[in-house]
Specification:
Elements lengths: L5 H9 L4 H15 L4 E5 L2 E6 L2 E8 L4 E6 L12 E8 L8 H16 L24 H8 L2 H9 L2 H12 L4 H16 L6 H7 L2
Antiparallel strand pairs: 1-2, 2-3, 3-4, 4-5
Helix pairs in contact: 2-3, 5-7, 6-7
Length: 206
Amino acid sequence: MAARMEKIDAYIAKAQPFAQPILTYLREAVHKAVPDVEEAIKWSMPFFVYKGIILANMAGFKHHVNFGLWDGMAPTAPGADGSIRSFDKLTSLKDLPSARDLKQTLVSAAHRIDTGERTKSIVRHEKAGTRRPEVELPAALSAALKKNKEAAVNFKAFSPSCRREYCEWITDAKREETRDKRLQQAIEWIAEGKHRNWKYETAGKK
């Protein structure tokens, strides 16, 4: 099996106590189903990459864990409606399918890469009828935008998925200090017309 990343060891160790066994189980399940998978950290979350293509990702939050397999249709926010199958709001191992079903799902996802059906991690377009509803604007972000006219104009012009990225990034902060720091950074980037993940978008063009 491929080597484990120390950064993901640290990510799991810092996760909420209830989330640690779920994240550990998912990580091992991926490696057992797809032995050649590689680990990576993207968007501050653990990812699993197979033959250079994103296979899956997992994320631990304050009250739940999300796990999703990608099919190349991921929007700018990873692990959302772009996964071929996602397991969201996990709070215990009981919320997961059987080990056999999970392995079959993982093997099937890897097979699509083996056969060439999937050739890219992300295909940036949306399927008809899959648009998600507009996200609710956090009060702190709304107040900050009112104080920065340029940021407010740019934010309004962003796509719904881009606005969602910023909203979820801020609301997912576990501590008030972290939320305030993210809010300040968000306003700065938005005023400059930058998407939440602009660093990765820029890197991909090099």
